[in-house]
Amino acid sequence: MLKWLKRGLLSSLFAVAVSGTGWAIDPVDTSQLVNAVTAEKIRVHLRKLQEIADRRGGNRVSGSLGHRDSVKYVTNRLINAGYSVQVQQFPFVIFRENAPPGLVRTAPGNRVYETERDFTTMEFSGSGDVTGQLALARRIVLPPGDEPSTSDSGCRPEDFDNVAGKIVLIQRGTCTFEEKANFAAAAGAVGVVIFNEGQWAAPRFWAARLGAPSRFPSSVTHSRSAMISTSASDRAFASN
Fold first, then answer.
1. Residue 163 CA to chain centroid, in angstroms?
2. How far apart are CA 196 and CA 183, in angstroms?
């Protein structure tokens, strides 16, 4: 049995539009501009932006307070330089975890998997807490072939037989993560765990994304999805 814990959020971004001189048809003497832009002056702005990040929890990610303060800084600098500035808002889909994710094997025996070592949440995974029996997608190839995409596990609807209400373990390869998750969700799975195909000795996982939530049917946006390391998948596969 696996227990999956996850949170997600949609937010928005900002853009700064600057109205200035249009494209020049004739050659223009740019020496004054070139001489005005120096490495040290660029570093002044970089330090200011870093100060903003430090004040706002270490980042200036789009939609955050650090991003808002960065927009204000850039806007004020441009206005002081004589530009006419308009700040534009527009919707933009962004994925953010609001709480630490968790992945736990509850039987046989209890094992807590460590985030960012054993697993990571796939970008645009759905939110929520689920517990379910672990099921295996068909056509998992172990040991894998020498070349990537030896396995096409999870790339066909028939790979998800009797997975309703379960969390499905799927091997990476051939088709996209989004396609694998779509097929699993359509078959009634409550979550998917995808592991690396296994050609490389390194046991680490790769960060992965499912695609924009707006492309998914509701069943997929509510499906919890994770990417786990090869070593963690070996343990999960053996325990099933």
1. 25
2. 18
pTM passes above 0.70: no
Beta strands in the chain (DSSP E): 2-6, 12-19, 84-91, 102-105, 111-113, 119-121, 128-132, 134-136, 167-171, 191-195, 224-228
Residue 139: CB atoms within 10 A of its CB come to 17
| Geometric angle at alpha carbon 211, from 3 and 116, rounded to 5° | 45
167 CA to centre of own chain:
20
Write out pLDDT tens, residues 138-178: 988 877 777 777 788 899 999 999 899 898 989 888 888 88
Both tokens of 175, joined, read 């088709």
Q: Is 34 helix (H, G, I), strand (E, B) or coil?
A: helix
Kindly report, residue by residue over 108-145, the tens digit of the pLDDT: 788 888 887 778 888 888 777 888 888 999 988 877 77
Cβ pair 180, 154 in contact under 8 A: yes
Q: Which domains, ranges and CATH numbers included, belong to the chain?
A: 2-9+95-239 (3.50.30.30), 21-82 (no CATH)
